[in-house]
Write a structure and sequence with these properties.
With about 280 residues, this protein is of the alpha/beta class. About 45% of the residues lie in helices and about 20% in strands.
Amino acid sequence: MQTSGPSPVPRRFERILVASDLGARSDRALDRARQLADAWQAALLVVHAMPRTSESPEPARQRIERELRREVPAAAIHVLEGEPADAILTVAQRERCDLIVLGDQGGPAAPPMAGSTTQALARKAPCSLLVVKRRPHGAYRRVLVGTDLTAESRQGLETAAALFPLAGFTLLHALDIPYESLWLAPNRRGDLLRMERATIEAFAGEARLDPELRERMELVVAHGHPETMLGERALEHDHDLVVIGAYRRGAAFHLLLGGTTGRIVQLAPSDVLVVRCP
C-alpha cells in the first residue's frame, strides 16, 4: 500500500561528502564525486578515518590532508580518528550533507567484513548514499530504478529523474511469487501480466516527472528476488546506475524487510544510489 505524498523533490544535491581511504577504490569515488559536484555546482567535502593511536596523530593527519588536497584541491578536508562509518556519519550530520559517496568495498576477493562500512551507512546515513563500483566515464547514461510501489521508491524515482534528466530511464518492479508455476493456471497468466502492467503504469503516472522523460521511460515487471532481477537487468542492458528508495521504518521492519536494500547494494554490478527520503 502506498503512503501519503512524499516531501518535495530536490532539484539537486548541494553538499556532497566523499569518503576516502587513499586506496584505489576510493579514487573511483573521488572521481565520481568531483563529476557530480561540477555538474550540480555542489560543495564537495572529503572525510578520512584514521586509527586511534596513543601517539600524537598530527603528523599523520597533516600527511593525509596534503595527499587529499592534491586529489581534490577545492574540497573541504576532514580527518577524524575512529571507525570509518562513525567518522563519515559524524561529518555528514555536522555538515548537513545531502549525499555520501563511497567506493565499493565488496567483490569476490574481499574479506568477510569488507562491506561493513557500506552496510552501516545504508542503515544509518541521514542522507542519500552513492556506492561507486565502476570507474566514471562522464555522466550516468542509463539509470535503472527499482520499485516496490511504496512512497519511498517513488521518491527514489523522482529524485533520480531530477538529478539525471538526460539519462535513459528504466523502472523495474520485481515480484517474488513463491511457487508461482504451481498455483497459477496457464489461462490466468495473461490476466496477471495485464494487472501487473496496469499497476506499474499507474505508479509511474503518479510520479512527478518531466513529460518527456516519462514518455521515454521503459516500464518492466519481472518475477524473482529484487536483488537478482535488478542485477541481471543492469548487467544485460548496461545500466551504469541502479536507484532504490531507502525505507524510513523502525528497527523491526528493517530486520524483516529492509535487508533487501543491503543485498541490492552488495550484488548490483553497477553503481547504486540509495535515496533517503527527507
